[in-house]
Amino acid sequence: MSQPILDQIDKVVKENNIVLFMKGTPEFPQCGFSQQVAGILNAYQIPFAAVNVLLDEAVRQGIKDYSDWPTIPQLYIGGEFVGGCDIVKEMQASGELAETLKPYLTA
């Protein structure tokens, strides 16, 4: 993967508290897994950046290389890779996601 793409991804991850790399947009998700994660984040009423990987094949492949994770969606919180749909759902069920998001919730 080209370094400029990885640098571009790194910039997005570091400049946003919460980033979801997904297929489609939160308003119009293009896969069920992306829809689920966006829905979970929306339920917390927390702002997040969304990157539609379907718009750029280089970004779609690049995010997989960046995280060393093979699937989309991918959630980043505080510059750290959290996981994909199954992990986010497990974290939500256990309460861990709420704790992880707490510093970014507005009163």
Mean pLDDT: 95
* Strand line-up in the sheet with most strands: 2-1-3-4
At the fourth level of CATH, the homologous superfamily is: Glutaredoxin
Query: What's the architecture in CATH terms?
Result: 3-Layer(aba) Sandwich
Strand content: 15-25%
Low-confidence region ranges: none
The level 1 CATH classification is Alpha Beta
The structural domain count equals 1
What structural category arises from helix and sheet content? Answer: alpha+beta
Query: Mind describing the biggest β-sheet?
Result: 4 strands, mixed
Which percent bin holds the helix content? 40-55%
According to CATH, the fold-level topology is Glutaredoxin
**H/E series:** HEHEHEEHH
Shape: globular
Whole-number radius of gyration?
13 Å
Q: Please count the beta strands (DSSP E, at least 2 residues each).
A: 4
Q: Could you describe the 3D structure shown?
A:
The protein has helices at 3-15, 32-43, 57-67, 85-94, 96-101, and strands at residues 18-22, 49-52, 74-77, 80-83. By secondary structure, the chain is α+β, with helices and mostly antiparallel strands. The chain has a single domain, classed as Glutaredoxin (3-Layer(aba) Sandwich). A four-stranded mixed β-sheet has the order 2-1-3-4, sandwiched between helices. Helix 2 (32-43) runs parallel beside helix 4. The N and C termini lie far apart (41 Å).
Short key terms for the protein model shown above:
16% strand; alpha+beta; 49% helix; Glutaredoxin
Quick structural gist:
This protein has 107 residues and is α+β, with helices and mostly antiparallel strands. Helices cover 49% and strands 16% of the residues. A four-stranded mixed β-sheet has the order 2-1-3-4, with helices on both faces.
